[in-house]
Amino acid sequence: MDYLRTPDDRFSGLPGFSFAPNYVDVAAGDGSNDTLRVHYVDEGDRTSGETVLLMHGEPSWSYLYRNMIPILVEAGYRCVAPDLMGFGRSDKPTPRGEYTYARHVEWMREALLDNLSLSGITLVGQDWGGLIGLRLVAEHTEHFSRVVAANTFLPTGDRNPGKAFLAWQQYSQETPDFHVGGIVKGGCRTDLDETTIAAYDAPFPDDTYKEGARQFPLLVPTSPDDPAAPANRQAWEVLQKFEKPFLCAFSDQDPITGGADRVLKELIPGTQGQPHTTIEGGGHFLQEDRGPELARVVAAFINSSR
Questions:
Q1: Among residues 42, 226, 284, 289, which one is catalytic?
Q2: CA–CA separation, 224 vs 221, rounded Å?
Q3: Which residue, among 150, 129, 124, 130, has the nearest Cα to 60 in the 3D structure?
Q4: Residue ranges of the alpha helices (H) in the chain?
Q5: Gap between the Cα atoms of 288 and 282, Å rounded
Q6: Could you give the domains of the chain?
Q7: 8 Å CB contact between 111 and 140
Q8: SS3 content of the chain, % helix, strand, coil (to 5)
């Protein structure tokens, strides 16, 4: 499989992101013997039995969690924050057709569950971090202790995704300049300075590195016959019986996933009786807007649901 690997010097001196890089190889998934490299941050106590899996979405990378990781580590937890394939320091296949929903799930499954053997996991999934993470939860329930859903959902294509998402999907394919840092800035309610915007741009030296980011919006199931719809429906069959603690921590100013928490609360048994919270002043990227607050919510949830 053809891929690009962002040069290491692109990640030097990023503000607030001094974490050591870690890598694991996974099968490319194209029928060849090729492998691809997945990057992940791994900080904190590996002996506590509590692992917080921080999964980012589109078009960010693990940098999104830089303000949460120290708080969670201080609380005694191991934090693992992978870069999805095509993002951050992970490899970036160049043919867009190599990116499928199923492959994204398998790449993370092999990296996190097989190679790292993570267990006792608290999933924190936002945006595509939930679309992929919730599939992992449903398909490998034994690895997970609880879930925090933050501005995310698990679509099957049976519901209208809404005007905001469809507008984003169209924009992502038509804009001549897919400015990753600018897109993240536009999804925040706080102003991002130029160095932070540049940090989100760092994994993408030019447009050839952005095939995965461009393709992601097209992989969200928006019709009942979408290729990913059957697997997501199967995941929902499991989630509708999922009784482990499940917390919704959505922000109050996200036009993309606003209201999705109501569906999760209605359908997933583990949401019952949990201290669901609405985080004020947060946009779609609530980790950027209100990262420390979200980290404290996650830590309190783990402590209260052990």
A1: 284
A2: 8
A3: 129
A4: 69-74, 101-108, 128-139, 163-174, 180-186, 194-201, 211-219, 229-239, 260-267, 286-304
A5: 8
A6: 3-304 (3.40.50.1820)
A7: no
A8: 40, 15, 40
pLDDT tens per residue, range 169-204:
999 999 999 999 999 999 999 999 999 999 999 999
Question: Cα(209)–Cα(19) distance, rounded to whole angstroms?
Answer: 23
Q: Is 34 a catalytic residue?
A: no
Which residues pair with residue 43 across a beta bridge?
79
Catalytic residue among 42, 83, 91, 127: 127
C-alpha span between 228 and 222 (Å, rounded):
10
For 98, counting Cβ atoms within 10 Å of its Cβ (0-12 exposed, 13-18 middle, 19+ buried), the class is: buried
Computed on alpha carbons and rounded to an integer, the radius of gyration of the chain in Å comes to 18
Integer CA distances (angstroms), 205 to 12, 19, 31, in order: 14, 21, 29
72-127 residue pLDDT tens: 999 999 999 999 999 999 999 999 999 999 999 999 999 999 999 999 999 999 99
Annotated active-site residue 254? The verdict is yes
Residue 25 in 3-state DSSP? strand
Q: Is 127 a catalytic residue?
A: yes
Token look-up 């209260």 returns: 304
What dihedral do alpha carbons 105, 110, 111, 115 form, nearest 10°? Answer: 160
Q: Taking the model in full, what pTM does it have?
A: 0.97
The sheet carrying 144-149 orders its strands as: 22-27, 35-43, 78-82, 51-55, 121-125, 144-149, 246-251, 277-279
Q: Of 42, 83, 91, 254, which is the active-site residue? A: 254
204-216 pLDDT, tens digit per residue, is 999 999 999 999 9
For residues 60 and 266, give the distance between their C-alpha atoms in angstroms, rounded to a whole number: 29
Contact (CB, 8 A) for 44 and 117: no
Is 136 within 8 Å of 108 (Cβ atoms)?
A: yes
